[in-house]
Structures are given as C-alpha cells and as structure tokens.
Specification:
four-stranded antiparallel beta sheet; single chain; 0% helix; mainly beta; seven-stranded mixed beta sheet
C-alpha cells in the first residue's frame, strides 16, 4: 500500500525556516513526478515545487523561487521542502504528491499525503 507521510511543520516566526519531509512508502519514487502543494485557509490549493521525472528537472512556483529548495533522498524515498525567509502568507497546510509511471511512461497512480500545518506568525 502506497503511503505518503509528511512531517516537519509547525509554528515559526516571520523570517524563519522550516524543512518539511515526505516519506514515501510502498513504492520507489524513481518513476514518479514528485510535488509539494499548499492550501491556505479559504484559498485553493496551489503548487509549490516539483521534481519532474521525465527530464529530471526541478521547478518552483514564482512565489517560491529563491526561498524554497526541493530535494530528495532516493535511497530512503524521502522528499524534502526547505523553506527560508518565511512570511505569514506562507501559512498553509503543505502536502506532498506523487504521480507514478510505468516503464512505458503511462501514469499508474496518483497519491497524496495527509498534509502538515505550517504557521508563520510572531
């Protein structure tokens, strides 16, 4: 059974940093697109950063560029989101997502974690 479990959220002051983790169980994510999303209260979910398997590129939403770094440990199936210079507007539930492909590059499943709360406040 595939499971995505996030951790690392919490309360941080403006200007502070956090590193979120997403542990992927039940499959290897070497054949996956891996993404972080966030959803603030009263707002739609938005994409933060992603790793695209097809071309091994990492992409960031405009608001994340320069403040956010996406990384991963392939051996341990862990996806990280390091966030710096956090602002109150970054307050949201952050969730990781994986889209799995087979050897023929066909999608074989999409999976979400339960999310971790990030609150930026003084």
């Amino acid at each position: 059974q595939v499971q995505l479990v996030e951790s690392g959220g919490g309360l941080v002051q403006p200007g502070g940093s956090l590193r979120l983790s997403c542990r992927v169980g039940g499959m290897t994510f070497l054949r996956c697109d891996l993404k972080w999303f966030r959803q603030a209260p009263g707002k739609e979910r938005e994409w933060v950063a992603c790793f695209i398997r097809a071309d091994s590129t990492t992409q960031y939403a405009d608001f994340a560029k320069g403040r956010v770094t996406l990384s991963k440990e392939n051996d341990n199936n862990i996806l990280y989101l390091e966030m710096n210079n956090l602002k109150p507007a970054d307050t949201a539930i952050y969730s990781c997502y994986a889209k799995k492909y087979d050897v023929f590059r066909r999608s074989t499943g999409e999976y979400w974690g339960q999310g971790t709360q990030v609150t930026v406040s003084s």
